[in-house]
Amino acid sequence: MGGFFFIILSIKLIKYDTLYSSIISRNFRMTLYNEIISAAKKIHPFIRKTPFIHSDAFSELTGAEVWFKLENLQVTGSFKARGATNKLLSLNATEKARGVVSASTGNHGAAVAYAAGKLGIECTIYVPDDTSSTKLENMKQFGAKIEIHGHDCILAEAKAREVADGSGKTYVSPYNDLFVMAGQGTIGVEIGSQCEGLDAIVISVGGGGLIGGTASYLKTVWPKIHVIGCSPENSAVMLHSIKAGKVLDLESKPTLSDGTAGGVEENTITFPVCCDVIDESVLVTEDEIKQAMSLYIEKEDQLLEGAAGTAVAALLEKKADLKGQRVGVVICGGNISLDTVRSIIN
C-alpha cells in the first residue's frame, strides 16, 4: 500500500511540477512581452524598421503565401543591433563609463560596437579564431576593439565574462540577457504592425535570443501561430538541447550558418523560453543551405548570410506542410563575404 501511495504521490508531483513550470513560463513570457514593448520605444531612434515583403517567387515555389522580414537591411546588416542597443540603453551612467565587454562570431559584436559608438561607450569584443574576415571587418568598422580567443563562441563568451567580472565592466551576452532578448523581440512588434496575421513563422536558432523574443511576442498577439525553429545539422545545440530537456555540451562542425553556430550557456534564460515557444524543429544540411541561399539571391536580388539561408532552406524543406498558409521568414542578416557568395553561386 505504501508503494502504491508513493507512485500516486510521484505522479501528482510530476503533474504539479509540470503545471508550476507552465505557470512560470507564462508569467515570464508576459514579463518578456512587456519588456519588448518597452524596447520597441527605446531603440526606435537607433534602428531601422525593416521591410516585411511578400515574395511572389517563393510563394509560387512553396504553394504558401510567403513574406520575408528583411533584417539583412538593418543598420549593422543584422537583427543583432536591436538587442545590443536595448541592453546598452539599460545601463546607468556609471556602467556606461566603465565600458562593456562581449563575445561574438561577428554580428553581435558589430551591433555592440554600433550601439556603444552611438552612446559613447568603450567596448571590447572577444571572438573565436574561425570568425569570418568579413564580420571581423564589420566589427572594426563600428569601432570595436577585437580580442581573439578559442575555437568556439562558447569559449569566447566564457573569456569575456571572466574579463568583465575582473574589470567591473558590463558583459553584454549575445543572447543570455533579458534586455537583449527583448530587443530582438521588437522584430515581432514590427511584423505585427506589417501584416494582419500569420499561420507560421520560420526563424533560425543559435543561442535562442532571436526566436525567443520574436516568438514570445507573436504568440502573445497571435496565440495560434506555429513557430518553426531551424538550425544547420552541423551545429544545432539549442534544438538538440530542447529535445533532451537540458542544455547539452555538443561539438559544432563548420557551417555556412556561422551566425547560429557554437555552444549554448548552461544557465541561459533563452532555453526555457525556446522550450515554450518553438513548436517544431527543422535541421538542414550544408548543401540545402547553399541551394537556398543561391535561390534567394537569384529570386530576391538580395544578399543574405548563412544563418538567414538556414531559414530559407527550412521553408523549402517544409513546403508541403505549409502549403496554403501565411508564412513569415526572418532573413536575420546579410553579412557575407564576396568569396562565399561566389562559392555558393558557382
Account of the protein in words:
The protein is an alpha/beta fold and 346 residues long. Helices cover 54% and strands 14% of the residues. The protein has helices at residues 2-43, 56-62, 80-89, 93-98, 107-119, 133-141, 153-167, 178-194, 209-221, 237-244, 270-277, 286-300, 306-317, 319-322, 338-345, and strands at residues 52-54, 65-70, 100-103, 123-127, 145-148, 170-172, 200-204, 226-232, 280-284, 326-331. The chain has a six-stranded mixed sheet with strand order 1-2-10-7-8-9, sandwiched between helices. It has a four-stranded parallel sheet with strand order 5-4-3-6, with helices on both faces. Strand 7, helix 9 (209-221) and strand 8 (226-232) form a beta-alpha-beta unit. The longest helix has 42 residues, at 2-43. The protein starts with a helix and ends with a helix.
| Terminal residue distance | 71 Å
The helix-and-strand class reads: alpha/beta
Per the principal axes of the C-alpha atoms, what is the gross shape? globular
Work out the oligomeric state of the chains in this entry.
Answer: single chain
Strand tally: 10
* Strand line-up across the major sheet: 1-2-10-7-8-9
The ordered H/E elements are HEHEHHEHEHEHEHEHEHHEHHHEH
Which consecutive residue ranges, at least 5 long each, have pLDDT under 50? 1-20
Please tell me the overall pLDDT. 91
Largest sheet: 6 strands, mixed
| Percent of residues in beta strands | 5-15%
Q: Which value, in Å, is the CA radius of gyration?
A: 20 Å
